[in-house]
TrEMBL record:
Keyword set includes Lipid biosynthesis: no
Organism whose genome encodes this protein: Methanococcoides burtonii (strain DSM 6242 / NBRC 107633 / OCM 468 / ACE-M)
Listed name of the protein: ABC-2 type transporter, transmembrane subunit
Annotated localization: Membrane
Domain of life: Archaea
Membrane topology qualifier: Multi-pass membrane protein
The UniProt record lists the keyword Transferase: no
């Protein structure tokens, strides 16, 4: 457990000390909140949404922030490959699975911190949470999104050497995942074929789980969302651990 904690602490400290990284990663979520939220709030009317369209998309923007931060934490692996830290870690008498778990927990923690920052900004923009237990439920789903996609990013990074190539592949994969998640639109209003694709997207269940926690409104049963996202998280951690054990330096 010491190696898991050490690597987790290293990742968190690197994140907190990099003010430019922290502020830069807020750019896109804040842009979506301001432009889409306030821009379309008076135009888009959603039945049953007391807080309007901006209230509807806030859980989706929080999910987006957690998603992007956790996935791109996989770049830490490539960075450590290039600068030799990973080689030093791998030759130590510790399990590679422990190293991978430390990286995953570190990436998930930074992602949840990023999501909480967006949440705090959303409160100042008028978000009203349903209850304290609901807020805890939202945190649980944020953690699951962070863990699953941090493990996903590490799995991809374990097979790559080029940081720029990793960014391109992640952008190619992550934008469709976010776009199909129902973060910006109600999935109940979609055509049957699009709804099917949306339900195949694991992020959909995270978005709906956070939406249920913050607004007590969800288009998917929260228990189903929790089970599906938990299963996806376990699957990604297993795959990420396997691919990380096969890594060559």
């Amino acid at each position: 457990m010491d190696i898991i904690y050490t690597i987790w602490l290293r990742n968190v400290k690197r994140y907190l000390r990099s003010k430019s990284r922290l502020l830069g990663s807020l750019g896109m979520p804040v842009f979506f909140l301001l432009v889409l939220g306030f821009g379309l709030n008076s135009v888009v009317v959603l039945p049953g949404m007391e807080q309007g369209y901006i209230g509807f998309i806030i859980p989706g923007i929080i999910s987006m922030s957690v998603l992007f931060t956790s996935v791109f934490s996989g770049m830490e692996i490539i960075w450590d490959k290039q600068f030799g830290f990973l080689k030093e870690t791998l030759v130590a008498p510790v399990s590679r699975t422990e190293i991978m778990l430390g990286q995953t927990f570190g990436g998930a923690t930074t992602a949840v911190i990023q999501g909480l920052i967006i949440f705090i900004l959303s409160v100042f923009m008028g978000l009203k949470i349903s209850s304290i237990p609901g807020f805890v439920i939202a945190i649980v789903f944020m953690v699951l999104i962070g863990l699953s996609f941090a493990a996903f990013g590490i799995a991809i990074a374990s097979r790559m050497e080029d940081m720029h190539g990793f960014q391109l592949i992640m952008n190619f994969v992550i934008f469709p995942i976010f776009g199909l998640s129902g973060a910006l639109f109600p999935i109940d209003s979609l055509p049957a074929n699009m709804r099917f694709l949306t339900l195949l997207d694991p992020l959909t269940y995270g978005v709906e789980g956070i939406r249920y926690g913050l607004l007590e409104s969800s288009q998917i049963d929260p228990v189903i969302s929790f089970v599906v996202l938990s299963g996806f998280t376990i699957l990604m951690v297993v795959i990420g651990s396997y691919l990380f054990r096969k890594i060559n330096i």
